[in-house]
Amino acid sequence: MYFIIASFRSRTQAAKFENLLKRNRIDCALINTPREISVGCGVSVKFSESKFNAVKRLMQSADLTSFSGFFRVLNFDYGRYNLERI
Fold it and tell me: What CATH number has the domain bearing residue 7?
């Protein structure tokens, strides 16, 4: 199970980014931020790793000051996520 999440310090900006991705036909969802990240508002945007380059381009063009980073979710073991900052 590999996917990427974009973490934010603002719920409003996380929702704004989700809407931006959906307008650009990128399948995504708002999810609770894994506690292992321990940054932000508690909401992140989840999307497929195959869409990372397109998402990164959209992030660069968006004015989202509360963005705190991209994280690759490697797997979910025993109730904990294994994450890697990208």
Answer: 3.30.70
Write the CA distances from 66 to 14, 41, 69, 80, integer angstroms.
8, 9, 9, 25
Whether the model pTM is above 0.85: yes
- The C-alpha atoms of residue 1 and residue 23 are separated, in whole angstroms, by 25
Show the domain range for 48: 3-85
Structure-model confidence comparison of residues 42 and 56, the more confident one: 56
Measured distance between the N- and C-terminal CA atoms of the chain, rounded to whole angstroms: 17
Strands in 28-32's sheet, in edge-to-edge order, are: 28-32, 43-47, 3-8, 67-77, 80-85
How many domains, the chain? Answer: 1
